[in-house]
Amino acid sequence: MSSERLFSLRNPWFTTSVAAIVGIAIFSAVVGFIWLPSAQSDAPFQGIWNAICSAAGVPQSWLPGSTPVVSSTQTSTVRLTAGLLADPGPISIGRGATLALRCTMCHGERGVSNANTPNLAGQYPVVVYKELIDFQTGARTNAVMTPMAKNLSDQDMRDLAAYYAYLPKIVPVRSSDGAQAPEIVLTGAPMRNIAPCASCHGGIDNKIGSPWLNGLPAAYIKAQLLAFESGVRHNDISGQMRNVARQMTPEEIDAAAQYYAAAGTH
Ligand code: HEC
Ligand code: HEC
User: Fold this and answer.
1) Among 11, 16, 119, 183, which residue's beta carbon has the most beta carbons within 10 A?
2) pLDDT per residue over 253-265, tens digit each?
3) Which atom of ligand 1 is closest in space to residue 164's alpha carbon?
4) Looking at ligand 2, which residue's alpha carbon is closest to its atom 18?
5) What does the pLDDT look like over 125-168, one tens digit per residue?
6) Using a 6 Å cutoff on CB, does residue 211 contact ligand 2?
7) What is the rounded distance in angstroms from the CA atom of residue 189 to the CA atom of residue 227?
8) Binding site membership of 217 for ligand 2 (Cβ less than 6 Å)
9) pLDDT by residue (tens digit) across 35-64?
10) Distances from the Cα of 2 to the Cαs of 6, 8, 82, 191, in angstroms?
11) Does 102 contact ligand 1 (Cβ within 6 A)?
């Protein structure tokens, strides 16, 4: 069999196999570049040209009018260090007390709220400071707190943090041996990669930036855990709390909320 005859259009084997390969190539291109990308519901994938570009990995910003595939959400800009707000002094606390007059309506006269607003009394100063900055930058959003934080200066936030940290915390009334603590708080859930709450929030250890939870209203704790779970709240540095909350069962969320809130029944 000579090569001349093999690659001739008159050779039916040759023409059939070339046609089959071309056919398969066109079919795969349609499936890979148009059909599969179009099956995704995201807006940037709509339309044949967008589908082809996204399958080919062409940056979406080249396409006018399309929204980026990866939307950037504001994350916390605060850098927590051990020395942050370490020694505020009486002037800062005094200024904070004056500024806090605007906050008493919701957070209570001495930082302890009777409604489902979080208590601030005795909260770690870095937590109050960080949360206020996050509300201001939009890393954390809340219809009430976003406008409240808007016009605070950096010094205002430091002073408010110093004042609230100076107020006495709600101390746990439960027995100190932690016998009533639910498993999720004391041991976490190692199989689901959940470290014990107490290893960051106090009890076993307190990691910088982890809020004092004892005495917070149960409804507030639950709402925050659900917000971390859904990603609505995403100001936790490195996703520490989102990773925990996503793995928790609804029963564990309820148990943790009840446990920490119970510490506040004075
Ligand atoms: C009208 C009611 C209202 C006022 C006034 C108010 N807050 Fe708040 N604050 C809230 C609510 C509600 C939340 C919980 C937000 C959420 O659910 O994410 C909150 C949350 C916070 C947090 C986060 C607490 C945490 O545990 O994460 C801080 C810090 C805070 N407020 C500080 C202040 C300061 C300081 C002022 C005064 C300058 C103030 N707030 C005034 C209602 C209020
Ligand atoms: C790896 C450390 C870590 C572990 C483990 C952890 N947390 Fe947190 N948690 C944090 C940090 C840090 C924040 C503050 C996030 C931010 O910057 O706003 C937080 C915030 C929270 C808040 C919001 C408090 C507030 O005042 O708004 C709740 C509620 C909470 N954690 C509950 C839990 C529970 C319940 C567990 C155990 C199932 C747990 N956390 C385990 C680090 C941790």
Assistant:
1) 119
2) 999 999 999 865 4
3) 35
4) 236
5) 999 999 999 999 999 999 999 999 999 999 999 999 999 999 99
6) yes
7) 20
8) no
9) 887 777 665 556 777 777 777 777 555 555
10) 7, 10, 82, 67
11) yes
